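Please fill in the sequence for the structure shown.

STRUCTURE ENCODING:
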């Protein structure tokens, strides 16, 4: 069974910032280059091996401004040895040409979403032409894509993409299931199992993240089914239920540490950065 040959270790990716949470509502959200770099280092210390980065401007708003993106990449490379993945999703308001241009900041990896999806009241645009262009641009530059899947049919798009274009940079195919977005697939074990069954043969590894309240159920399901993990304040700012109501997440490192603890309990301790680089087909 594809569920029984579970990897011996767990790649933990941290997504510390995202484009949706507001600094004035969540002051502990890392938004400045210094804060993101410090959070990256703290997360590496407790088990993360990759960081999925969204950049904010001086007013803490999402930006794809290239000098700012380069500044954050440099700061994270200085503070940590994490695999650096830049978001090409940006925010729902970002134009596609600017989303492509973040590749100029030379990350190790980039996110690549496989289809358009409703995103709360907004639309996250990823038409086929953009998917192909981003795939080719990343391959030409040796940047390893992480294929983001928000809904089951996007795995069919991945199959079509790989059948037509061949393998991405690095020669591996790593998928991340983003579950529980209002407009995408639900963050349930059923949906996760359906995705695992629908993965194209070329897929070599996959992770999952549950948005909001699906965070913990998806974490448990992914570990159980042989998947890796993404955690972070991009996806969850609520730690859990407390006696007096929801408890806020205090830091990304807390989320990584909890994920690492569960993974270790399930005999799949965190993968180190060298392991992550090998998994993704990045040079040692
Ligand atoms: N902020 C979302 C609209 C990605 O990073 O590639 C898109 C997103 C996916 O977060
Ligand atoms: Zn993102």
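FILLED IN BY: designer on duty
SEQUENCE:
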């Amino acid at each position: 069974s594809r569920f029984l040959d579970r990897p011996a270790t767990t790649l933990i990716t941290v997504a510390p910032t995202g484009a949706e949470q507001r600094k004035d509502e969540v002051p502990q959200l890392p938004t400045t280059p210094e804060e993101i770099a410090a959070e990256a280092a703290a997360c590496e210390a407790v088990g993360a091996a990759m960081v999925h980065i969204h950049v904010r401007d001086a007013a803490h708003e999402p930006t794809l401004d290239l000098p700012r993106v380069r500044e954050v990449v440099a700061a994270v490379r200085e503070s940590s040895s994490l695999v650096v993945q830049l978001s090409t999703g940006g925010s729902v308001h970002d134009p596609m040409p600017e989303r492509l241009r973040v590749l100029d900041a030379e990350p190790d990896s980039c996110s690549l979403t496989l289809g358009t999806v409703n995103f709360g009241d907004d639309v996250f645009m990823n038409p086929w032409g953009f998917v192909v262009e981003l795939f080719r641009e990343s391959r030409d530059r040796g940047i390893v894509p992480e294929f983001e899947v928000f809904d089951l049919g996007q795995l069919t798009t991945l199959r079509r993409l790989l059948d037509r274009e061949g393998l991405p940079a690095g020669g591996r195919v790593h998928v991340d299931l983003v579950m529980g977005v209002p407009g995408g697939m639900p963050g349930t074990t059923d949906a996760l199992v359906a995705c695992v069954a629908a993965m194209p043969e070329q897929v070599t590894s996959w992770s999952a993240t549950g948005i909001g309240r699906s965070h913990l159920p998806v974490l448990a399901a992914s570990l159980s089914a042989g998947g890796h993990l993404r955690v972070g304040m991009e996806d969850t700012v609520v730690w859990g239920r407390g006696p007096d109501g929801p408890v806020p997440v205090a830091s990304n490192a807390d989320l990584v540490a909890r994920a690492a603890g569960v993974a270790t309990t399930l005999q799949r301790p965190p993968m180190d950065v060298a392991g992550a680089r090998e998994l993704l087909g990045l040079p040692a």
